[in-house]
Amino acid sequence: MDEKARYEPMSHGPIGAAVKNAMPHTEADPIGVHAAVLALFSAALNGKVMQPDGRPVVVWTALAGRSMVGRKGFALATAEKLLWDSIGEWLALRREGGISSGPSLVQTLYEREQESLTSEGGLDGRCVIVDEEWQSTLLMVKRCPKYSGVFRTSWDGKRISNVTKKDGKKVEITVQEPALGFHAHIQPALWAKFISLTEAQGGSYNRILPVMVERSKRLRRRDYRTGNPLDAIKVSGSLKTAYEWASKERRRMVLGETAADRFDEISAEYEDALEELPEDVACFIERSAEQVMRVACVLTAAERKLVVTVKALEAAKAFVDFSIASVKQLISQSNVTKSRTILPLDVKIRQKLEMYAGEMTQTQLYKALSGRYSSAQILSAVEDMADVEVIQERQRRPGANPSVYRLVPVMPEPEPEPVKPAPKRRAPAKKAAVPAARKPAAKKAAPARKKVGSKPPTSSTRPTTRSSSSSNASQVTASATRTMTRASEAQSNLSNPSIF
How confident is the model at residue 127 (pLDDT cuts 50, 70, 90)? Predict the structure, then answer.
């Protein structure tokens, strides 16, 4: 999906038109430009335009992108160019750098109010912090326990204060309705290092909408021959008129009947999603519903209207949803490793496709990978990825058809049915012998003496057991011995007649 298709769902009204008109002249991500415009323009509307419930409409954003590749500075410069005619002078006077402590933040907003007391417009404490080195500020913020509370309360537009000593006496400095805008830049690898989960769970960072950004294109050198290409961007006259309209009097937005029903559905959708998300992700997006309302009010004010429509809500929701996806990506990267590691090419391809709604041309994918891999390497890696397909998209214009890389769902392969073993033949069950009733043991009869000269048992008569065979053999041997003894006695008698 190209940059125009990615940005289209969140584009609405004069702000969307201004961002689209600027894109041919900048290398910035259009969503990054959109985020910067929302932060700066809403900071100028802070205290002038209110939500339906009376809360401020200010939107805080943070661009997360790698150095050079993310083009964060390009996005901010493009937004400033678009807003120069409308709030350029106000930005020059009300812009502040990184503020790293709670007392200094209260003091800065208090001084802005005091400076405005003599101006024609009266009390005006509006201020916008633009921190292009946010990681350095976050390192200092950890040393001040008061910063987080003051920072959160300023987003809500509620009273903040700080106690100081002057001439040995305690003096309380108070800002009743702080009007603070905020826009920052940070590298994804430093997100987990400086933004702790404890602070996020306390609500310090769910008031900021982080946006992952990348370079949209690389302008050619000839585009710089006549100067900075950003100079060719036309400022938005509609936004200038909208700022003048909002500055005349304090205005409060209202929701149309249909828009109110749609906002209830959006709120319920986010609440259901929060129940399923882990705590380390949910703590960053707990205020997504109110963020949608704030963005929708800014988009509506840019149209010089008071009634928020369903279209404005849908465009705001698309931007907040992109921020939620950015949060998940930042957290997933920090959970994998705390330091920068080299990911496999297939993992990088899958991540880029997921960021671009699952579809990119070959040129877009090449640029998204920072040109570190050749087209042949990318194609070779995709051939081994079951969830990515490459198709040739036919174009009506002459020239080669572009190759489109697309994520496709992978159907799980059906598990093979287990092979059932052939049933074994069972031997016929032997009938259990029924034990016969016990009879009293009969007295053993004395073995009958066999006559001398009796015939031995024939071979046809087989003994049933080994013990019986041995018994018969011993009986035969004993009988034969007695017969021979008797024969010898008879012969001796015949030879000795005296015996008779």
Answer: very high
